[in-house]
Amino acid sequence: MNKPQAPLKIEISKSAILHNIKFVRQLIDEDVTYYSVVKGNAYGHGIETYCKVVFEAGVQHFCTYTAEEAYRVWKTTDGKAAILIMGYIAPNELEWVIENDIEFFVFEEKRLQDAITTAKKINKKALVHIELETGMNRTGFPIEDLDTVLSTIDSNASCMEAKGICTHFAGAESITNYHRVKKQQSRFKKVVKKLKKNQQLPLLVHSSCSAAVIAYPKSKHNMVRIGILQYGFYPSREILVNYLNHNEGKENILQPKRVLSWKSSVMDIKDVKAGEFIGYGTSFFSNTPTKIAIIPVGYSLGFNRNLSNLGRVLINGKRLNIIGTINMNALTVNITDLEDIKIGDEVVLIGKQGEMEISVSSFSDAGNLPNYELLTRLPAEIPRVLVD
Ligand SMILES: *Cc1c(COP(=O)(O)O)cnc(C)c1O
């Protein structure tokens, strides 16, 4: 057998990626360093596929959540990109991380001490970003501990460098969190001011994700960590409205473009008489003669079962209804009265076909999932194919 073909693929648009880099860059000043966030398999776009394109386009800094993801970025960029791990590092990965100048967050005492021990052992400098707890209550040193952390780093200057200082907002994409985020912003600013005065300020200062860059533009400092915008999505509708309000009256304002399309093909077609249930159980009944197409995609491949009898797909440029329940490996589409659809025809689950489009957000609204979650749930084993 030749290389097996997956029943579906995810196409990644190179031109949309390049456009979105431009979009992100126009939101920040030139002296602000842009770290491209590629955790969650580059928000489902595929770390290897995505990083190769943006690295070649001049993006030199990446954020991951784990050391495993960092390793994949490192491989893809031949060890030439700056990589920052914001979350998990397994004990046996720390040596590789330090050896290869991978930057990482320190947010508690054990990681700080382990990093010092490992760096001494291999005689390399650990490059750390001190993460501060300003109110999200996830990771981060309490602000009161900062002096101790700094003096620990200072007294181990031969094996550790504080490359950055940072914090993360607890939901900058929603106005509901406005007061909480504002408090975090002011706590962080106070620390930065003090460090600056004492000439202790690390090279990089950062707190902003995609939403904060638009909603809290004064939080950019000299580095930003941008995820979802790069993939063509606003973090929320509020942030879209905020962006449009800020740019009201301007001509040709840039908008991010969708990068990802999700496609399959028709596997089978059949006619069903009137008066029959279609698929498992009784969720769809044919009141009239019904012609159906079977598509080899189901919930095991990331197609949300909540879209049973609700979702739409595109075939031959037409928007068609999913009928019956989504199976583990298949779904059924109503193609009644359509004579031109054949086995093998392209089926678009997310993306454009002709004049029609199925957006991630219509898809995620119907399935009641935020964009972030839908994207990152797309299974890693679906091949990502780069297209123009
Ligand atoms: C995910 C993440 C980001 C990026 O968030 P977006 O909303 O996708 O821009 C930035 N910083 C941290 C700490 C994160 O975990």
What does this structure look like?
This protein is α/β, with parallel strands linked by helices. The chain folds into two domains: 13-246, Alpha-Beta Barrel (TIM Barrel), CATH 3.20.20; 260-387, Lyase, Ornithine Decarboxylase, Chain A, domain 1 (Beta Barrel), CATH 2.40.37.10. Helices cover 31% and strands 26% of the residues. The protein has helices spanning 14-27, 39-43, 47-56, 67-76, 94-99, 109-122, 146-155, 178-197, 210-215, 237-246, 360-367, 371-377; strands at residues 8-13, 33-37, 61-64, 82-85, 103-106, 126-133, 141-142, 160-166, 204-208, 223-226, 260-265, 268-272, 276-277, 285-286, 290-295, 312-315, 318-323, 331-334, 346-353, 356-358, 384-387. Strands 1, 11, 12, 15, 16, 17, 18, 19, 20 and 21 form a ten-stranded mixed sheet that branches. An eight-stranded parallel barrel has the order 2-3-4-5-6-8-9-10, surrounded by four helices. The chain has a two-stranded antiparallel ribbon with strand order 13-14. Strand 8, helix 8 (178-197) and strand 9 form a beta-alpha-beta unit. The two termini are 30 Å apart. The structure holds pyridoxal-5'-phosphate.
The main β sheet shows up as: 10 strands, mixed
Name the overall outline: elongated
Provide the low-confidence segments as ranges. none
CATH homologous superfamily heading of the largest domain: Alanine racemase
**Total count of strands:** 21
Mean pLDDT: 95
Strand content: 25-35%
What would you say the CATH architecture of the largest domain is? Alpha-Beta Barrel
Helix content: 25-40%
CATH class of the largest domain: Alpha Beta
Structural class estimated from helices and strands: alpha/beta
Q: The CATH topology of the largest domain, please?
A: TIM Barrel
Query: What is the domain tally?
Result: 2
Distance between the termini: 30 Å
Distinct compounds present: pyridoxal-5'-phosphate
Number of helices: 12
Radius of gyration: 24 Å
